[in-house]
Amino acid sequence: MKRKTQKQLKRTTDPTxxxxxxxxxxxxxxxxxxxxxxxxxxxxxxxxxxxxxNLVLADIEKANPSELADQIAERNGVKAKxxxxxxxxxxxxxxxxxxxxxxxxxxxxxxxxxxxxxxxFFEPFEQYSDENWDxxxxxxxxxxxxxxxxxxxxxxxxxxxxxxxxxxxxxxxxPNQNLYKGTSLGCPAAYSASKGGVDALSRYLAxxxxxxxxxxxxxxxxxxxxxxxxxxxxxFARFSPMQRLSYxxxxxxxxxxxxxxxxxYVTGDNLLVEGGWTVW
Length: 280
Ligand SMILES: NC(=O)c1ccc[n+]([C@@H]2O[C@H](COP(=O)([O-])OP(=O)(O)OC[C@H]3O[C@@H](n4cnc5c(N)ncnc54)[C@H](O)[C@@H]3O)[C@@H](O)[C@H]2O)c1
What we know:
alpha/beta, Rossmann fold, 13% strand, binds nicotinamide-adenine-dinucleotide
């Protein structure tokens, strides 16, 4: 395993000395992405690979992360490996770390893109069961704690790295319940609460690990298009300043900024990719 040497930042007032495009390059970096096979996770992985980063795609076994890893590696000429993980279980995340260090020289980045949409995810608040609450919180919040603790501590002890966590618009504002009228969708309190925890944890770690050169930031996506029912898309357009849903590739572009040297002075930030949803 290679210990990272911290890149010296150029001390200059002359911008012509800077290769701005090179700041976005991820060549030689190894990035671990959880929830890698999901809607946004897939876009994250493709974007990282196009910027020449190596990847560990971590997702539950059923999602078959190895298959996607092979496709991404072949398409982009990078090294990519899949690993079946349950982020809510310490032993599973420990095994992920061992796997990463067996196959790669370093861990340079961690992106937490997992979430647990349980079978009864949309149960009304009044009936939400303990089991349902625990399952959502265990994956969303505890899962983020465990990956940050286990993989983040490794980065903190080995010269630094970047963490990007994914809270939600609903850790910034409450859901507008009118958005869901006439649709089968909703947003459970367990989701908002777990994402609020992710937000707080990320800010905590940004401060805690700043001196160890680990930058911890967040991306807040909103309404990422996934063949939604027509009524939902219409409602969404009515309440959104930009009058449309977003696309997963629009979220992934933001990730490259936060994972790369382009954001070298940014930590503890929550980059809202939400089309102005929370601005009014
Ligand atoms: N889609 C949106 O509009 C939106 C909006 C705001 C925030 N987000 C957040 O962005 C992230 C990605 O969203 P998405 O739409 O791609 O979600 P998704 O449901 O499509 O993907 C989530 C992935 O997490 C994986 N996963 C579930 N349980 C896991 C576990 N225990 N261990 C490891 N992986 C597990 C799933 O298999 C899946 O591949 C989530 O954290 C979500 O809360 C999404």
